[in-house]
Amino acid sequence: MKRPVPASGLGHLRVVLDENFYIGPGRADLLEGIEKTGSISAAGKAMAMSYKRAWSLVQALNEGAGAPLVETSRGGTAQGGAHLTATGREILARYRAMEQKARAAIAPDVEALRALTKRPPPKT
Amino acid sequence: MKRPVPASGLGHLRVVLDENFYIGPGRADLLEGIEKTGSISAAGKAMAMSYKRAWSLVQALNEGAGAPLVETSRGGTAQGGAHLTATGREILARYRAMEQKARAAIAPDVEALRALTKRPPPKT
DNA sequence: CCTCGATATGTTCAAAAAAACATATCGACT
DNA sequence: AGTCGATATGTTTTTTTGAACATATCGAGG
């Protein structure tokens, strides 16, 4: 699963809140997928990630953050599933906002670097 | 070699120019170390990195960027050494500037996230 | 009480990354 | 010609990471 090169030049933005909690692109995508699909396994599959890995990431997120970001249920009519808590949604939204702001803030420098290293503007 | 948690909350800023060239915190620190010490091995040692690893990173930087960022010499009176090219210095400077700008741009959201997850302001 | 799909977790294997170790080379200077 | 310190590379070992596989569990509903 290779992440495509963003035209913006911003590859990773990892926001580290302390030594056991951070949000990066992968975690954000996973949260987004869970929100969209209502399931850890479906979200994982959508990004070509094993269920175990996806579940482990959710664990890390829930334990790392003070509050749970993802709530899960097993069995029942819906046969189980997962969804974001309000905190989870806010963290995701803020991360996306930060990505945008950071992109905008560094855009001029990225352009300058592209020119400096004589690189054609990327196709994507 | 663990990177300390920055009080700003910005852990990683990786600027990807294309699939074989990017700059992140590690590479920037290495460039800075080379600039300061005049040697790949000294710079590597300063960040608890093996010479081989440091040298490999320099290779990746020089090959990935269109132009060489680090120039090296062997033997001679100074017994060899390394220094940044003008391009190398500019890339480093711009990366640092981008870090600052990104930090500033996301600072309010970082604060909000800290509050949201009820985290004491970090000591560092 | 058995089914079903998704969560929950352990175990084992393979691939990738980094560390560790080992040489070889350059070249002004003595 | 031999020294010295830093670059330049190759080889081997260890560590880390992720994939793969295997089970166990939950719980409304048929």
What features would you describe in this structure?
Two copies of one chain form a homodimer. Chain A is an alpha+beta fold. Chain A has one domain: Orthogonal Bundle (Arc Repressor Mutant, subunit A), CATH 1.10.10.10. The first copy, chain A, has four helices and four strands. In chain A, helix 1 packs across helix 2 (40-46). The longest helix of chain A has 31 residues, at 86-116. Chain A starts with 9 loop residues before the first strand and ends in an 8-residue tail after the last helix. The mean pLDDT of chain A is 92. The A-B interface holds A 5-6, 9-19, 21-22, 24, 65-67, 87, 90-91, 94, 97-98, 101-102, 104-106, 109-110, 112-114, 116-119, 122 and B 5-6, 9-19, 21-22, 24, 65-67, 87, 90-91, 94, 97-98, 101-102, 104-106, 109-110, 112-114, 116-119, 122. Strand 1 (10-18) of chain A pairs antiparallel with strand 1 of chain B. The structure holds a DNA duplex (30 and 30 nucleotides).
Largest sheet of chain A: 2 strands, antiparallel
Helix content of chain A: 40-55%
Quick check: average pLDDT of chain A?
A: 92
- The side-by-side strand order for the widest beta sheet of chain A comes to 1-2
Query: Whole-Å distance between the termini of chain A?
Result: 17 Å
Question: What structural category characterises the helix and strand content of chain A?
Answer: alpha+beta
The coarse overall form of chain A would be elongated
Q: C-alpha Rg of chain A, in Å?
A: 17 Å
CATH class of chain A: Mainly Alpha
Main interface by residue count: A-B, 40 and 40 residues
CATH third-tier fold name of chain A:
Arc Repressor Mutant, subunit A
Number of helices of chain A: 4
CATH superfamily of chain A: Winged helix-like DNA-binding domain superfamily/Winged helix DNA-binding domain
Number of domains of chain A: 1
Approximately how much beta-strand content do the residues of chain A carry? Answer: 15-25%
Order of helices and strands of chain A: EEHHHEEH
Oligomer status: homodimer
Uncertain regions of chain A: pLDDT < 50 for 5+ in a row?
none
The CATH architecture designation of chain A is Orthogonal Bundle
